[in-house]
Amino acid sequence: MSAAPILTLGETQRGPGQRFPALVWSLLHAPLVLVLYAPAVTAAVAAVPGRYRLALWPTFVPQALLLGLAPWLLTLPVSGWRRGYRFVLPAVAALFTAVLTLDSQVYRSVGFHLNGFFLKVLMQPHALGELGMSGSFVAEVLAGALAVIAALTLLGAWFIGRLAPSRRRSWRIALALLLLSAVERVYGETLAHVGGPAVFASAGVLPLQVPLRFDGLAILLFGKAKKDPFASAETQRVRPPLDPTTVRFDRRPDVLFLVTESLPVDHLDAQTMPNLWRHAAEGARFTRHYTTASATHYAIFSLFYGLQAQKLEATVGAGRRPVVFPSFANNGYAVHALAASCVDWMQLRETVFGGVTHPVETWCHGEGTEVDRQMVARARAITRETPRDEPLFVFLFFDGTHFSYPYDPKDRLFTDEWDGQGSVKVTTEPGYKIKNRARNAARTVDRVVEEFLQDFQSVRGSAPLVFFTGDHAEEFKQKGHIAHGSDVTEEQIHVPAIFFGPGVPRGVYGAPTSHTDVTPTLLALLGDTHAPSLYSDGGDMFRSPDDRFVVATVGWEPRYAVVGKDLKVRMFAGLGSTDVTDPDDKPLADGAVRFAANAAKIMKALRGEVDQLPARGDAAAKAQPPAP
Question: Topology of 244-619 in CATH?
Answer without folding.
Answer: Alkaline Phosphatase, subunit A (3.40.720)
